[in-house]
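Our consortium's second objective concerns turning raw sequence data into structural hypotheses that experimental partners can test. To show how far this objective has progressed, the report includes one record in full. It was chosen at random from the queue rather than selected for favorable results. The single chain below, 220 residues long, was entered without modification.
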Amino acid sequence: MGFLQRLRRRLFPPQEVIEGYQNEQLIETIYQKTVAFQPAGDWPLVANLTAVLDFGGGAGIHYKLARQQSPAIRWAVVETPAMVRRASDLATNQLMFFDDIQKAANWLGSIDLMHSNGAIQYVDDAIETVKTLCAVRPAKMVWYRVPIGEVARAEIQTSLLSNNGPGQLATGTDKRVKFKRHWIPGEAFVAAHQGYLLSESAADPRERGTQQFTFVRSGV
């Protein structure tokens, strides 16, 4: 996006608003941008892994990068029902989409890694979702861009439709997208990882006010 286009959008933001991750236009934008996107670079996190559960992985953008590092990797994306329906035509014997954590785990079998990047804050009950993910017993759990606060609270977050999904893709007339985002108490988030040890926690440079965490399964 050029400087003049960014300036116009800042001075004259779009007026039409769409809401939530189930919106068909938002899903189509993410889908089309994922199909078009060509990732580059290494991803040491997934080196030598065979099975990953990607919570909130959209239309499979993380898999496109992971398979460059580990071509035989099997990848299960857990997403909203609407995203799963749209992305289903991208499924292969190595990439599958599910709207249920347990079904994704059943397909993978033994799970090397649970990966989630900026997704847990958009579910209605983050703590119960974390517990459900722990129950399928991945060897490691890595979280990025988790909004951590002293108390639980919700806010309305707004972004541009064109900024959702990887890379750049023309979307026609741009729109604003509204989401409900939850701030998660840090102690409750860590405590929800029953059977896991916190091995790393730090401020996440990708998004101000968020943290990244790595947990490893006890006894691994």
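The partners drew two points from this record. Strands lie at 17-19, 51-55, 74-78, 95-98, 113-117, 140-149, 153-160, 176-185, 196-203, 210-217. The longest strand covers residues 140-149. Both points have been shared with the crystallography group to help prioritize constructs.
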